[in-house]
């Protein structure tokens, strides 16, 4: 029957289940091999990109250091020029020229960070043009604790809040790395590293005690430092994720470590050595970094008691110590000191590091808060140095020229100024002042 034969032909044209399975397995294994090949290629490209990033990061760090050294040479040249006969510039004993500029800081933007208050410190990330400010959680019911608010200085916009710690943040710092790793110290007994690329905490170190301050090593970005409530300095190596690698024990009183700064090694006549400048409520110590990651303490002669903050200016090797009012000095004082070193003996390679007061700046009679001030190179880049300090009595930040000692400006705020941060973005010089609620951003023009 013709009909039956056509049906048989159509039935025989349908592939058997075994054949279908064979084809599907062949197709799936082919797709799997293709997928694996693409994944291997992507992993290879990713590894190459990471390697390129590391090379560029290292190169960027080297260039930053070279820029700092060149700035130091320019400053030294300007100092030499200012000492020539007939030059109208005046210098004080610390050999800093005074600024001749007619320009000033003008208010550019006000960022309200926390309506509830309790902001405390801030830090600027040069590679990301980003300012971060510590604050309590804006949704404390859902996300308790403290973190930072990010602000883009390039486009003057604030972005999201990043939760980091369970208690108040006392210190924030960026190193010379190009990857935007934020170091933070808090009263919850932890030192943390947060990636601003992913807005997540990438490393936590338990210190065992409240942390009052922190800083990066600027000679080797693998090392970070934590200043504890008992005056100890804990040293951590980022390659060791478990614990500290060294502890620098306080030589005298066990006071809270209110400030930590790292002075990088530099071709400087006054102090070429690198190390940590540590400030407590009772005094200061420069921990000179020796070979093999050992440290040698040099006690600096500060006035006894009442020192609430020490800041450094690395290119000129100066530091700024801030003192509370006392019976003998009824006002807040910021004392500018030059850091120097002299050989221990003629034959010895060891040195004695010391600090020599060269200028004093006076503010108002009130100081109830632990605030942070600033010492930095003038935006004119003429070798002169500026000092900026908060004045609780007038709710302002006072700006002085370190060379002449003259008051240049009084930047008004609504509340006491807690922290001050100079920065440069796209060849524009800015200055940020922080109260417990807001940041004011000023532009040099």
TrEMBL record:
Pathway assigned to this chain's UniProt record: Protein modification; protein ubiquitination
Listed GO MF terms: ubiquitin protein ligase activity
SMART domains membership: WD40
Domain E3 ubiquitin-protein ligase RFWD3-like WD40 span(s) in chain numbering: 105-443
Subcellular localization, as worded in the UniProt entry: Cytoplasm; Nucleus, PML body
Single biological process term from Gene Ontology: interstrand cross-link repair
Positions in coiled-coil regions: 39-73
Protein name: RING-type E3 ubiquitin transferase
């Amino acid at each position: 029957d013709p009909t039956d034969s056509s049906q048989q032909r159509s039935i025989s044209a349908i592939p058997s289940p075994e054949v279908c399975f064979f084809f599907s397995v062949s197709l799936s294994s082919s797709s799997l091999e293709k997928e694996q090949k693409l994944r291997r290629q992507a992993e290879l490209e990713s590894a190459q990109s990471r390697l390129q990033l590391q090379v560029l990061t290292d190169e960027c760090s080297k260039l930053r250091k070279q820029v700092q050294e060149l700035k130091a040479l320019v400053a030294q040249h300007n100092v030499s020029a200012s000492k020539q006969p007939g030059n109208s510039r005046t210098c004080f004993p610390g050999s800093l020229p005074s600024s001749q500029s007619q320009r000033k800081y003008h208010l550019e933007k006000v960022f309200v960070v926390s309506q509830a208050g309790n902001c405390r410190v801030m830090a600027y990330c040069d590679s990301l043009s980003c300012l971060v400010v510590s604050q309590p959680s804006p949704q404390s019911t859902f996300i308790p604790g403290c973190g930072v608010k990010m602000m883009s200085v390039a486009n003057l916009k604030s972005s999201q809040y990043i939760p980091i710690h369970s208690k108040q943040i006392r210190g924030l710092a960026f190193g010379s790395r190009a990857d935007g790793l934020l170091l933070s110290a808090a009263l919850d007994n932890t030192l943390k590293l947060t990636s601003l690329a992913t807005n997540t905490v990438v490393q936590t170190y338990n210190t065992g005690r409240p942390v009052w301050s922190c800083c990066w090593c600027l000679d080797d970005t693998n090392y970070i430092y934590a200043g504890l409530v008992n005056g100890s300095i804990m040293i951590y190596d980022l390659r060791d994720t478990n614990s500290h690698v060294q502890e620098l024990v306080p030589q005298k009183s066990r006071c809270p470590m209110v400030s930590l700064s790292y002075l990088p090694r530099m071709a400087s006549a006054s102090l070429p050595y690198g190390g940590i400048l540590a400030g407590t409520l009772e005094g200061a110590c420069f921990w000179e970094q020796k070979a093999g990651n050992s440290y040698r303490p040099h006690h600096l002669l500060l006035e006894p008691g009442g020192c609430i903050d020490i800041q450094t200016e690395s290119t000129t090797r100066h530091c700024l110590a801030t003192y509370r009012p006392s019976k003998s000095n009824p006002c807040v004082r910021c004392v500018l000191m030059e850091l120097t070193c002299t050989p221990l003996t003629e034959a010895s390679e060891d040195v004695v590091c010391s600090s020599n007061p060269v200028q004093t700046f006076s503010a108002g009679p009130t100081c109830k808060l632990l605030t942070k001030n600033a010492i930095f190179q003038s935006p004119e880049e003429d070798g002169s140095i500026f000092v900026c300090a908060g004045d609780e009595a007038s709710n302002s930040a006072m700006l002085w020229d370190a060379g002449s000692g003259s008051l240049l400006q009084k930047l008004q705020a609504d509340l006491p100024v807690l922290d001050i941060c100079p920065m440069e973005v796209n060849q524009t010089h800015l200055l940020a002042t922080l109260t417990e609620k807001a940041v004011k951003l000023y532009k040099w023009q």
